[in-house]
Amino acid sequence: MQAVIFCCNHAPLPEQLGREMPFCLLPLAGKALVERAVESAVEAGCKTVSVILSDHPEQVEALLGRGEKWGATIRYALLSDFSGLGNGLRTIRASLDDELLIFLTLTAGHLEMPSAQGEAVFFSYGHEAACTDFFILQKAQLDVPGLEHAERGDEVRAALRAAGVAYRTQEMDHGPVSAADLPGYVRAHGQALSGLGLPTPGLESSPGVRIGHGCAIHPGVRFNAPVLVAEACQIAADVEIGPEVALGKGCVVERGVRIAGSVIMDNTYIGSRLTIENALVRKNLLVKCDTGTVLQLADAFLLGGTEPVRRSNLVNDLLQRALAGLALLLCSPVLALLYASFRLTGRPRFATRPVAGRVRSSDLSGTEEVEELEQHYLAVDSLFWSRIPSLWDVVRGSMNLVGVETISPEQAQDLDEPWQRLRFQEKPGLINPWHGLEPQDWDADEKRVMEGYYTRSRSLKADMGLLWASLHRWLQPS
Hints:
Blueprint: E1 2-6, H1 15-18, E2 27-28, E3 31-32, H2 33-43, E4 48-53, H3 57-64, E5 73-78, H4 85-89, E6 99-103, E7 106-108, E8 120-125, E9 134-138, H5 153-162, E10 167-172, E11 177-179, H6 182-193, E12 203-206, E13 209-211, E14 216-217, E15 222-223, E16 227-229, E17 234-235, E18 240-241, E19 245-247, E20 252-253, E21 258-260, E22 263-264, E23 268-270, E24 275-277, E25 279-282, E26 285-288, E27 294-296, E28 303-305, H7 308-345, E29 350-361, E30 368-378, H8 383-386, H9 391-395, E31 400-402, H10 409-413, H11 418-421, E32 429-431, H12 444-457, H13 460-475
């Protein structure tokens, strides 16, 4: 028997998350959904597994390989748009076995496989009339009218019934878990943690609470089972986690946090006093699974990543704010004199202008937009003195001393290519990457390329070097 796993029959992920990973790689009790599905198929006796993908195929193939670790053969097929069982199998039909175990949605858990004896077999459990989205089908039955557009197990069974094709339905004591959208995914995760026989990593510290290796957990943390904490997590005091919560590898949870009914993905930082319920969280992205609300937080002290570069940049931002405050204090006597002279002459020289900030989520659909900031400046000819009032913007955290170029919101709207939009991951700065180079007339594309490299490689050492080189150049006599 051959298994066919559809990884493309699901509701789309929010745009910000979908750009980085496919639905089938969402974690389920410590392993990706598609990995759990492959394990279920192999346990059911399938030696060949066909995985049908629609996006990020390289990530899925890198995880599953060719099936060596399961002693099976895994094949891959691409499908740009899922429109039904028959249409989805058309391109690989020639390579299919006579008997097929179909996963129309991602399914994980123990499957009670009967002998099909040349018939289609559907499964149901819990005294529900509906059948599951995994079933046994004979290759010859793929020609039945209506199967080409069937997207659920009930629709497949109805098509066979209408065509007079024999099938049987097997009752199950309890079913495996499956997911075709984010609400279903969170429910499946809760069911998996509650005990469906899925192998779960970590040691059981108390009933229903499993802790991975290398974790640092304050004794005052309260766990409400079921909870899974993966390896290398750090959890501070006065934290309450559970029920139905999974923390991925390398997560950091600060004091006073409350988490329930949620999945926190690997390497996520959760700042103090946050409450997270019924959500999927990946670094600075929070998705409310019941409503579809998407929040992308720019403040890494609330939500962010825990990789070393991110921690370094937190220190970098704090240091830049402190330096800006010190510089503003030293320049305050001069600014006071300038303000007094402007008042006497009646010439308004202190002003503000709109500039583009970082990217953020703007509505429930997860559409991204660039936030609009207000920059303070001094309308004088000197580049150095014109930027002194902007130190206040650095102190309050809307800008950095070193960052990407300050551009207008109108200019930001013209940057729609992915390589151009990398710049919106960092705050605008008074000093830009090219200020550390020999002065020349850089065109807009050259600046965007330099900003993209700066965004990917930003570090405390590099920013301090740019700051010193730029100040040295600006303060030199012309």
